[in-house]
Design goal:
This protein has 15 helices and 17 strands. The chain is α/β, with parallel strands linked by helices and 415 residues long. It has three domains: 168 residues, 3-Layer(aba) Sandwich (Molybdenum Cofactor Biosythetic Enzyme, Chain A); 78 residues, Alpha-Beta Plaits (2-Layer Sandwich), CATH 3.30.70; 156 residues, CinA-like (Maf protein), CATH 3.90.950. The longest helix has 24 residues.
């Protein structure tokens, strides 16, 4: 089994009312089993659309995993549609029905008559017992190929996938794995990063390289395809070293690294405390920091100085400085970081002030302009940048940039 397709079923997915986390769960698990996902498709609760999608997936790869549409309501039509496609009539299973009765009884309930449909099984299909919910998974196999039907409830899908589906699929897989690792960068455009590591595909072969830009930066993902697990790990480690050698100044971590956690670890290693002063980010930097378990060992607190009067009274920003330079200026950012570190007794500080929009911009200070000051002991470094995007995106980019400025400064001091 070289590849497989995923079909997620539910009109709520097409309307954007429900986020499709099932495809991500399936993709990760199948890749680890050495089975490539050739295509992911979503369709609504429409019998014709489901039938066409399943038939097309089977024609392409011979195997499809379908999620959703196994419940007891009128819009749950997946089982009947796929059973008809395979020419398997539905048979009522009394043992499944009794299992439903017993399950409901444990919660002091009685199943409705419509739940009886969940005890119907396509003739000849394998039943995948569902210990996490009411609808069993189903494994249909015929001339068309293999169709695996799983509930759409994420917890039920996860249980069935790892306990019932993967063991069966592994017996048919080639034995290799599909494994990925990432290097996380920030503060560098995708094109500049790609220019720095151009040609790396030949150096790190047989790995593939992908660039994944987002609000927080650009991740460089390396993937090993269909290799023995040990060989994949060795190749990925060598590939990571090559990327780090070429783009080290922009890299803040690997895989799931969080920049706030990186900053906290650097500060903790030096026995230093951190304080923040925020205007346009409204506490977003502090929230990033306190999201990290153990942050209280380093982070003392912060001041959200949105109004100029608060900048003056709590951070000691001089009135004359605000009048001369305006709240969004390097001078005011510098005064903010000095004020917050002095008042809170911190050796490290971050201050952010800017124009998040959508209004308030001028030709001299456009929407997206952010001034950032970071302090390490008595040294203060100030920078300014214009970030693209809407209000939320500007604030997110500004917070990431502020944390990165402090990371860079701490790293220089450490060296």
């Amino acid at each position: 089994m070289a590849s497989i397709e995923i079909l997620t079923i539910g009109t709520e997915l097409l309307l954007g009312l429900t986020l499709d986390t099932n495809s991500a769960e399936l993709g990760r698990a199948l890749g680890a089993a050495g089975i490539a996902v050739a295509r992911r498709t979503s369709v609504g609760d429409d019998p014709a659309a489901i039938r066409d999608a399943v038939a097309e997936a089977l024609a392409r790869t011979g195997t499809v995993i379908c999620t959703g549409g196994l419940g007891p309501t009128a819009d749950d039509v997946t089982k009947k549609v796929v059973a008809d496609l395979f020419g398997m009539p539905l048979d009522f299973h009394h043992d499944l029905w009794q299992g439903l009765i017993d399950r409901f009884a444990r919660f002091g309930r009685v199943p409705a008559e419509k739940n009886r449909s969940q005890a119907e099984v396509p003739r000849g299909a394998k039943i995948l017992p569902n210990r996490w919910g009411t609808a069993p998974g189903l494994w249909l196999e015929g001339q068309q190929g293999v169709a695996i039907l799983l509930p759409g409830v994420p917890s039920e899908l996860r249980g069935l996938l790892h306990h019932e589906v993967l063991p069966r699929l592994l017996s048919r897989a080639g034995g290799g794995v599909i494994r990925s690792r990432s290097v996380r960068t920030t503060g560098v455009p995708e094109s500049t990063l790609a220019q720095r590591i151009t040609g790396i595909e030949q150096v790190v072969a047989p790995l593939s390289v992908a660039y994944l830009p987002g609000l927080l930066g650009v991740d460089v993902r390396l993937t090993a395809w269909n290799l023995p697990a040990a060989e994949a790990d060795v190749s990925l480690a060598a590939g990571i070293r090559e990327v780090v050698a070429r783009a080290g100044e922009w890299i803040y971590g690997e895989d799931d690294a969080d920049l706030a956690a990186v900053v906290l670890n650097l500060a903790r290693g030096r026995g230093m405390k951190l304080a923040t002063a925020e205007s346009c980010t409204g506490g977003g930097v502090g929230a990033r920091i306190t999201d990290v378990p153990g942050s209280s060992e380093v982070y003392l607190g912060g001041v959200i100085a949105y109004d100029n009067a608060i900048k003056e009274s709590l951070l000691d920003v001089p009135t004359a400085l605000l009048a001369e330079h305006g709240a969004v200026s390097e001078a005011v950012a510098s005064a903010m970081v000095r004020g917050v570190t002095r008042h809170l007794g911190a050796q490290l500080g971050i201050a952010v002030t800017g124009v998040a929009g959508p209004g308030g911009g001028t030709p001299e200070k456009p929407v997206g302009l952010v001034c950032i000051a970071v302090a390490v002991d008595e040294e203060v470094a100030v920078s300014r940048a214009v970030f693209p995007g809407d209000r939320a995106e500007i604030r997110t980019r500004a917070g990431q940039a502020a944390l990165n400025r402090l990371r860079q400064m701490l790293s220089r001091h450490a060296s």
